[in-house]
Amino acid sequence: MAFFRPPSPPTAMHLLHNDNDFVAIIKPAGIGVQPDKTGEQCLLDQAELHLGQSLFVVHRIDRPVSGIVLFAKTKTAAHALSEQFKERGLTKTYLAVVANLPEPTTAELVHYFEKNESKNKSRVYTEDKAGREKGILKYRVLGSSERYHLLEIQLYTGKHHQIRAQLSAIGCPIKGDVKYGAKRGNLDRSIHLHAHKITIKHPTTGELLSFVADIPSGDTVWSAFLDQINNPLVP
User: Fold this and answer.
1) What would the pLDDT profile of 91-110 be if each residue is shown by its tens digit?
2) Which of 174, 173, 167, 161 is nearest to 139 (CA)?
3) How far apart are CA 147 and CA 158, in angstroms?
4) Global pTM?
5) Where are the domains of the chain?
6) 87 SS3 class
7) Is residue 10 packed enough to be buried (19+ CB in 10 Å), middle (13-18) or exposed (0-12)?
8) For residue range 160-195, what is the model confidence (pLDDT) as tens digits?
9) Residue 205 and residue 123: Cα distance in Å, rounded?
10) Alpha-carbon distance 167 to 27, whole Å?
11) Which residues are CB-neighbours of 146 under 8 A, at least 6 positions away?
């Protein structure tokens, strides 16, 4: 399996991978993946300008979230990658910082989602009902500081604001995520949620590829957990 980390120092676009079929980029918090109602330049715009070609969106992470985003270069690659996201044919690992320690410290969460379009927010329930969509993730605590706890999250489905809503539902909103119950926001309007690792099959060759995005630099809260991130305990 091929394994990729960002170059040091990273390129202007924080490219992890670039071939004829797709590109993997580290998105900073605060920028959207694709055009939205704000009209602000998005990651797609920047990537197309940087690479000098049109790209296809195959998945998204939220504006205040940092981490790995993939764009396809061809319709064929876009379809192949999109199918992997739809059919859970890949592995997605996130890191999150929360103020409240979850109990138990390792668990699988299953909830049923309803999206409020007008508020751009999801509500989650423990009971299934017509119109609700099932969301599943697994978390484990990697470490704790005096004020915060670091969670590693395996995301098995891709619902709207899934990690944010599910952690909030168990009383553990993500640091800075006032939309889902955090007591205060971060100054830069980010939240402490990071798309840390993704493993896919190459859309053409079928080779297994794994990409890792280091945590945002210059953030004291993330930096406090650097040892646990680089040397996670075996579950």
Assistant:
1) 999 999 999 999 999 999 99
2) 167
3) 29
4) 0.92
5) 2-215
6) coil
7) middle
8) 999 999 999 999 999 999 999 999 999 999 999 999
9) 39
10) 22
11) none
User: Secondary structure of the chain: what % helix, strand, coil (to 5)?
Assistant: 15, 35, 50
Averaged confidence pLDDT in the chain: 92
In CATH terms, the fold of domain 2-215 is Pseudouridine synthase (3.30.2350)
pLDDT at position 90: 85
Q: Which residue has the higher pLDDT, 158 or 11?
A: 158
| Two tokens, residue 217 | 């630099």
CA nearest neighbour of 182 among 197, 167, 194, 196: 167
Q: Cβ neighbours of residue 105 under 8 Å, at least 6 residues apart?
A: 140, 141
Kindly provide the residue ranges of all beta strands, DSSP E only, lying in the chain, ordered along the sequence.
2-4, 15-18, 22-27, 56-57, 66-72, 91-98, 106-116, 121-125, 133-144, 149-155, 193-201, 208-212
- DSSP, residue by residue, 168-204: HHTT-PBTT-GGGT-SS--TTS--SEEEEEEEEE-TT
